Fold this sequence. Notes:
CATH class: Alpha Beta
Mean pLDDT: 95
Distance between the termini: 36 Å
Strand content: 15-25%
CATH architecture: 4-Layer Sandwich
Helix content: 10-25%
Bound molecules: fe (ii) ion
Order of helices and strands: EEHEHEHEEEHEHHEEEEEEE
Number of domains: 1
Number of helices: 6
Strand order of the largest sheet: 1-6-7-8-9-11-10
CATH topology: Purple Acid Phosphatase, chain A, domain 2
Largest sheet: 7 strands, mixed
CATH superfamily: Metallo-dependent phosphatases
Number of strands: 15
Low-confidence stretches: none
Amino acid sequence: MSQPILKLGQANPQILQFSDLHLSANEPLMGINCDESFASVKALASQYHHIDLTLLTGDLSQDHSEASYQKCREVFRNQNHPVAWITGNHDDLALQNEVLNIGAITTTKRILFKHWQLLLLNSQIVGEVCGEISEQELALIEQAGQDYPSHHLLIVMHHHPVLMNSQWIDNHRLINQSQLWQSIEKTSQVKGIIFGHVHQEVDVEKQGVRVLGVPSTSVQFSPSVDEFTIDEKQPGFRFLELLANGQIKTKVHRVADNKFNPVFDPVGY
Length: 269
Ligand SMILES: [Fe+2]
């Protein structure tokens, strides 16, 4: 299967990752106005003056409304660099394809830099909170490695590809994690996976691959707890620089001053 490829070509690309925006027509999420928290995170990211690519790693919408995607579109359509996105468990892929496909915003799922290739995978199971990557999508990993054997490979997905030791969120994991890791084992170019979904910072290594989770731009979830718990940490984003030697330089930034104070809702999110 051949996929369209966005060829950018920079040697050490600098990338922003925003995730789990949970935008809606006008509903707050657990006391957080997600428009305002996202605007604060986006403003914080403007400290980086040169960016080559922005990645939106799913759950862009909370309510599946067209209005939520339109808000997202208006923020990103005039960026001076490409903005690529994936779908999350809360998203409506058909609406995303329709609305998030203009100006700087691209629907392309494969991006090529000088030394790195990015592969954006769909882990959504429609109607479920947990995720799965189809066999066709898994095959793209090996295909990508064969097509550009000298490029390092970064996989971009919504669900967490490793267990978080947190029972409630692990119930919502990628259910075919082991198949994903088998595909990665066959593809030595894979150097990193970045994901959203867990609304917390993660930086671990598995099979020699850097595995990076990011705070949400909205509500944060507490790490290492078995029951759903929200965290008072502030919304944030991740900056990444992909180095020619296959290493990933990265930093998570969060909004300062406890500006956003969530209200616990036992129903979940
Ligand atoms: Fe989310």
